[in-house]
Task: structure prediction
Amino acid sequence: MLSLPNLLTLSRIFTVPILVALLWYPGWELGYGLGFGLYCLMGITDYFDGYLARAQGTVSKLGVFLDPIADKIMVAAVIVMLVGTRHEAASITGLHLIPALIILLRKLPCLACVNSLPNCACPCPCRSWPNGKRLCSLWRLGH
Result:
């Protein structure tokens, strides 16, 4: 149950409050820099937890359940902080709020779908394009 891939996923969930604290004060440039570094590290662990689980044969129901939830929590926290802080260089304002809202609203049905997957009798294998799409979203939010 507590394999290395699951620990990596749980570390992403428990790191979100630290990320939020680093992004809390818009004038603190060091905090934004550290937040960006932490966000990149969280994105890297997102890749490696799935890779290690498949490579080691330790894919678990807990990992399958928590991995997408950890991703959604991480992305939603960054979007909310960028909208809420209103820092000139890093905030999401004006028309840019529309894509931010679309991203957040899209995540709600995805999260509901993920929560129903453990009850699904058919296997739902991971494809490479969702990981690429996720990588692009993580990169754009961090950039």
